[in-house]
Write a structure and sequence with these properties.
homodimer, 198 residues, alpha/beta, Dna Topoisomerase Vi A Subunit, Chain: A, domain 2, 2 domains, four-stranded parallel β-sheet, 11% strand
C-alpha cells in the first residue's frame, strides 16, 4: 500500500537518505506529521539553510559558512602540519581524538580506478600548492584503511615527498579495547608489521 | 567537535528524528550537502508539504490530504467491518496482508494509565458513533500485542459489544516462518490458548 500523495512523497524522499530504509522513512514521516508545526518547519529550514549558507573552505575544502573554515582561521592551530582526509566529515573523527592540533586538507574522495576517480577529481593539485606556499613540514595521511585509501595514500606519498615534505600515514593495527580473537587476519598482519619496541 | 553553524543545526534537527542517532544524522547532513541542490530542496519542500496539505480523515482519522481518506472514499471497500488500529501507520501493515477489504478506525494511541492516556484521549466516542451510524457488523481490533494494546482491546470490547456489534481481535501466536525454538513463552502460551482444530 502507498500512502496519500504528500505523505508518500515525503517517505520517498526520506528513503533516498543514506541509512534510511523504507520502514524508517515511514516512521520519520509520521513523526514529522505528529510533531509541533514549528519543529517540522525548523527541520525543513535547516535543510534549506545548509544549502544556502554552507560551502567549502577555499583553503582546505572543509565545509564552512565563511570563506575559510573555522579551523583554518584558528590562530591556535599549529601551522606546518596537515592532516589529509578523504571527506570533510572525517575531520570530526580526527578532532575527537584530541591528538592533532594542526590543520586539514580534504581530498574530496579517494582514488578509484574502477569508480573512475583519478587524481584530477581530487584536491591533490591544491595540496601540492599548499605544501609549497604554507611551508608544510609534515603531511599525515588519514585516508581510509581500504584499498582505495591505500592507493590514494601511496599516490600522495609518491607525489608529495619530492616537494620536500615528510609524509606519514595513520598506524593500522588492533583497535583499542578490542579482542585479539576477533581481529581479522589483515588487521593482525598490519599490527605485526607495525609492531613497536617497548 | 561541533560543525559550523548551519551544518551543526541540521545535524541537531536530524538527531531528533526517531531512529536517527548522532552518527546517522551527521551522515545524512553531509549527504544533503553533497546531493544536487534540487534534491535537497525537494526534501525540504516535501516536509513543508506534508504539514501544509495533510490532515486527518474526518471519518476514520487516517492521514489524508482530502476531507475523507482514500480508503473511506473507496466504493469497493466493504462497509460493515471496521479494523481498529492504534495509529494511522498501522493501516499500511494491515493493507499489506491483503486479507482485509473493510475500512478502518484510527484510535490515535492506546490506553495507558501510566502514560495518562484515558478513553477521552482516543477516538473511542467517534468509534461508538460510527458503529451506530454506519451499521457496523464487526469490529476487528488490531491494537498492538502489548499490555497497552491488550487493555485497549478489552476496554473497547466491553464498550462496543452492548451496541450490538461483533468484536474480534487479531490472533496471537507463532509468527509464520518462525522457529518454535525462538518463540518466547508468552507467545507460545497465546499460541496454545488459540490452537485450532485441523
Amino acid at each position: 500500500m502507498t500512502f496519500e500523495g504528500p505523505v508518500q512523497r515525503l517517505i520517498d524522499e526520506l528513503s533516498r537518505l543514506p541509512g534510511v530504509g523504507r520502514k524508517s522513512a515511514q516512521r520519520i514521516a509520521f513523526h514529522v506529521l505528529s510533531v509541533e508545526e514549528e519543529d517540522a518547519r525548523r527541520l525543513a529550514q535547516s535543510i534549506i539553510d545548509v544549502r544556502d549558507q554552507v560551502g567549502t573552505c577555499v583553503r582546505c575544502f572543509n565545509v564552512t559558512s565563511t570563506e575559510e573554515c573555522s579551523i583554518c582561521r584558528d590562530p591556535r592551530r599549529e601551522v606546518g602540519v596537515l592532516c589529509v582526509v578523504e571527506r570533510a566529515q572525517d575531520i570530526a573523527v580526527v578532532e575527537r581524538s584530541q591528538e592533532f592540533r594542526g590543520r586539514y586538507h580534504v581530498l574530496g574522495g579517494a582514488l578509484s580506478p574502477i569508480g573512475g576517480v583519478g587524481p584530477s577529481e581530487l584536491h591533490i593539485a591544491e595540496l601540492a600548492v599548499r605544501v609549497g606556499a604554507e611551508d608544510i613540514k609534515e603531511l599525515i595521511l588519514a585516508t581510509n584503511p581500504t584499498v582505495e585509501g591505500d592507493v590514494t595514500a601511496m599516490y600522495l606519498a609518491r607525489e608529495m615527498k619530492p616537494l620536500g615534505v615528510k609524509v606519514t600515514r595513520l598506524a593500522m593495527g588492533l583497535p583499542v579495547g578490542g579482542d585479539l580473537d576477533y581481529a581479522d587476519e589483515l588487521t593482525l598482519g598490519r599490527a605485526l608489521q607495525g609492531r613497536q619496541e617497548m
